[in-house]
């Protein structure tokens, strides 16, 4: 697991501080930390980066806009 920054010591959903051994995940794009159970993940993500639904929607919107620029 990546180093957790001092100012990021709580889950961004439940706002509860997490401990060293908690099952947490960081979003690959916005880099905020969450308890896995707070975002509906039951196991360690297999991908190198995990993206929240908000980041996925923003990425798809950005891709559609860039295709329209051609």
UniProtKB/TrEMBL annotation:
Coiled coil: none annotated. Gene3D superfamilies: Zinc/RING finger domain, C3HC4 (zinc finger). Residues 8-58 form the PHD-type domain. InterPro entries: Znf_FYVE_PHD, Znf_PHD, Znf_PHD-finger, Znf_RING/FYVE/PHD. The keyword Cell membrane does not apply. It comes from the Eukaryota. Keywords: Metal-binding, Zinc, Zinc-finger. One of its GO terms (molecular function) is zinc ion binding. The keyword Metal-binding applies. This is PHD-type domain-containing protein. It comes from Caenorhabditis nigoni.
């Amino acid at each position: 697991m990546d180093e957790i920054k001092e100012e990021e010591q709580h889950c961004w959903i439940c706002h509860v501080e997490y401990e060293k051994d908690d099952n947490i995940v960081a979003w690959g794009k916005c880099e905020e930390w969450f308890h896995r159970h707070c975002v509906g993940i039951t196991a360690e993500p297999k991908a190198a980066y995990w993206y929240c639904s908000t980041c996925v929607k923003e990425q798809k919107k950005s891709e559609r806009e860039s295709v329209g620029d051609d």
